[in-house]
Specification:
By secondary structure, the chain is mainly alpha-helical. It has helices at about 5-15, 20-65, 70-85, 95-100, 105-120.
Length: about 120
C-alpha cells in the first residue's frame, strides 16, 4: 500500500528532474512562498500579542485610578481618535489599535490574571 507522501514525492521527482533548472526554480518558488507565509503569520501573532499586552496595561491602570472597567471602551475610543489625527491612514497602526481587546469581560479577565500574578510574587 502506497502512502500519500510517497506518491506526491514520486510525482514531484518525475516532474522536476534532479539537477534540472526547472527543479531548482520550483524549489526556490516553494521556499519563497513558505518564507512569506511564515512572516505573515509571525507578524499577525506578534500584533495580536501586542494588543493583548496593551489591554493588560490598560486593565492595570484603570483600577489604579479607581476607574470602572467600562471606561476601557472610552480609552480605546480616545486612542483611535488620537491615532486618526496623528498617523497616516496608510499606516497599519490604527487597525492594530482597533484590535486591542478592551471589553468589560476582557478587562475582568486581565485584572484576574494580574491579581494572580501579583499574588504569586
Amino acid at each position: 500500500m502506497k502512502r500519500h507522501y510517497e506518491t506526491k514525492h514520486k510525482s514531484f521527482s518525475e516532474k522536476y528532474q534532479v539537477g534540472s533548472n526547472l527543479r531548482k526554480s520550483k524549489i526556490e518558488s516553494l521556499y519563497l512562498s513558505y518564507s512569506t507565509s511564515t512572516q505573515i503569520n509571525n507578524k499577525a501573532m506578534s500584533e495580536q500579542e501586542k494588543c493583548t499586552e496593551a489591554s493588560i496595561h490598560i486593565s492595570w491602570i484603570l483600577p489604579k485610578h479607581m476607574k470602572l472597567f467600562t471606561n476601557a471602551d472610552i480609552i480605546k475610543e480616545c486612542i483611535v481618535e488620537a491615532g486618526n489625527v496623528l498617523f497616516d491612514s496608510k499606516n497599519n497602526i490604527m487597525e492594530t489599535t482597533r484590535n486591542i481587546p478592551l471589553s468589560t469581560s476582557s478587562d475582568t479577565r486581565n485584572t484576574e490574571l494580574l491579581a494572580k500574578e501579583n499574588h504569586s510574587n
